[in-house]
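Why should sequence recovery work at all? Because a backbone constrains its sequence more than one might expect. Tight turns favour small or flexible residues, buried strands favour hydrophobic ones, and helices have their own preferences. The token representation captures these environments compactly. In the example below, the structure is given first.
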């Protein structure tokens, strides 16, 4: 199936590694020109270089998406380098898991700042260009955690917020040929997850609770994102695609 995104320009935040890197690669394989964005300069540069070594079009821009000035630089440099922007994947995020009574204000603010404020700032900076050209795709990477997880009040709230934001923007921007959707991953085996001390316990529990008895892979999420970014998904907006192996609650 031709997704018809060849030549489109995509920004993928938090794409130095994991789901973001897999998404950048998948979009580039479909012919998109991809911006690898992260604050991890060395890893982001290596990811972009690896894509170019595969004959794909990729460029690294290191920028902190919690700062409006850096976000504007990210968008301006994207346009200067690739000539425009058409697709935005709001992927950047990380957990700071603790029970609420032990969760600090910093734990809350860091998670909200990157995932929710960051998505707001980048989407706001990109949107005028999408409106002007009459075509755009915004995909927020939410999580099955939007249903709620213990020790993840901050993370669950941020991921639920990304869904609410997507639904609101789908209504606002649909008239301009712009769709806004979410992908909600379940248990995905990434470097960050594998580094957790409780990784094996979390993995075993997740597989037990999933109808599909295998771990999720970053490529599973990347495939869903690529479809939502495509012409084939032009009549889908305001939706949440759960990529969870059938697990919801």
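From this structural description, the recovered sequence reads:
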């Amino acid at each position: 199936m031709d997704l018809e995104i060849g030549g489109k320009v995509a920004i993928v935040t938090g794409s130095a590694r994991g789901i973001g890197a897999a998404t950048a690669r998948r979009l580039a394989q479909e012919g998109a020109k991809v911006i690898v964005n992260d604050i991890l300069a060395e890893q982001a540069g290596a990811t972009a270089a690896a894509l170019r070594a595969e004959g794909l079009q990729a460029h690294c821009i290191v920028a902190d998406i919690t700062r409006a000035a850096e976000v504007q630089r990210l968008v301006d440099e994207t346009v200067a380098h690739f000539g425009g922007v058409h697709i935005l994947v709001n992927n950047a995020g990380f957990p700071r898991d603790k029970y609420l009574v032990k969760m600090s204000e910093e734990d809350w603010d860091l998670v909200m700042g990157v995932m929710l404020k960051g998505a707001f700032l980048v989407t706001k900076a990109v949107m005028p260009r999408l409106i002007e050209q009459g075509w755009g795709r915004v995909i927020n990477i939410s999580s099955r955690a939007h249903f709620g997880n213990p020790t993840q009040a901050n993370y669950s709230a941020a991921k639920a917020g990304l869904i609410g934001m997507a639904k609101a923007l789908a209504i606002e921007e649909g008239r301009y040929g712009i769709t806004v959707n979410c992908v909600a991953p379940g248990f995905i085996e990434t470097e960050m997850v594998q580094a957790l001390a409780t990784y094996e316990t979390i993995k075993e529990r997740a597989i037990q609770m999933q109808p599909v008895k295998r771990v999720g892979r970053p490529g599973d999420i990347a495939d869903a994102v690529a479809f939502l970014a495509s012409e084939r998904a032009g009549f889908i907006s305001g939706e949440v695609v759960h990529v969870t192996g059938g697990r919801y609650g």
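A few observations help interpret the result. The mean pLDDT is 96.
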